[in-house]
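User: Predict structure, ligand iron/sulfur cluster.
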Amino acid sequence: MFKVFASRLGKKYLYESTTNNIFEADDESLATLDASEGETPLLRRLGDDFYSQFFAGAENAKLSSLRDDMLPDEGSSPEILVLELTQQCNFRCEYCIYSGNYLFERTHNDIRMNEDDIERICDEFFGSERHPDYVSFYGGEPLLGFELIRRLCDNLDASGIRPKYSITTNGSLLLRDGVLPFLIEHDFHINMSYDGLNHDRYRLMTSGAATSGVVMKALETIAGVDEDFFASNVTISATLAPPYLLLDNYHHFSQHRLLSRLGVSVNLVNEGDNSFMDGFDLSEERDMLAKDVRCLADEYISCEGPVPKFLVSLFANSALRIDDREMGLQSHAYPPGQCDVGSHRLFVTATGEKYTCERVGNYGCLGHLGEDEKDIAAYERVIGDMSDYFDRHCRRCHLVRVCDMCCSALRRGSTLKDDELASQECEDRRRWYDMIFYVFLSRKELGKGMFGD
Ligand code: SF4
Ligand code: SF4
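Assistant: Predicted complex:
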């Protein structure tokens, strides 16, 4: 599959997914392809011959071997262990996936892990040398279970084990007694939620009170207590809901004394599977967003020297998949994304269920905390579903080797075969990667790297 992309200077490039290569092309050469995007009949035939030749005529041969490769062995541990310490939260953000407005997601409740669960986690995942390198604390608001964090870290300290710790927090409890010194002492990565100009519109306490003040106070305090820790260990997660105000938010983050020094990951509230977005005129919002993205892309392309962190987060991370792509035969075409079911990442809920990550809703339970053996059949089911899903949607897509669609798409469970929803998500992704290719090619032409180098 191929697609033609243009750079800001108007040069044309052909990206070809089988070899994952980009070729500069002039109009004359492109005319011989008889198409500007997709596949010509000739390329389609060549592609089919290619698959037959390399995969012995079995369309899914690559997928079958991939399934075997992906099965974990009995003694293996995930690299990243994500622990939902509690399903409680002291905020009631209006777009929250646990607000009750979402299909396929739980709602806020009082379920939380207890100290016995922490002991089980230590035994099960840290009892041998093959233990996770990262432990990430998640919620609800994980600092509502700070004593559980302390218990786990103290246990591992006593065993001489020091994984890299991280926490995703709303920031409101960081200044409670002893919390911040403990996180600094254990070199935590703190991923704090702050949504920029619309923060107080949607991110509210259970009482309905605004929350930006507590977040800013927490940031201010961390920077004051340990400047180096602040700059290297704190990042912001910004979730934007309409009105997105992307351009204004860029200025807000880039000009702010503290925020401008932090990495920001920018996410949009999902349009599908929830009623929160029902009240917005999404076509108008999308148009404004597209204009802002284009404007920021041009700013990013033009940047000389260090690129503002907001722009790096917005563009460079997606472009990394293009910049650092593996060229050659289609060795890692399927599936897109980085899901490596239960091996790379494992999410343990407050009820002790295991899932491949925190974004799959209640799809694909891989077993329960405290079980003696891995439920290999459960892993096989999820890997099989994932392979089928991506094979149906991605096999003939030019983005198959760079797309970041992951198996969170499977959260729809029984409605997995819903082509309409999948195609909407794919449309969004194609639009997004059109922009990323444009940015990547345009910066390359100017001799610039993706991170301002
Ligand atoms: S802080 Fe997080 S978990 Fe709590 S309501 Fe907000 S988005 Fe949901
Ligand atoms: S855009 Fe859709 S079809 Fe294309 S690779 Fe991504 S998930 Fe697959």
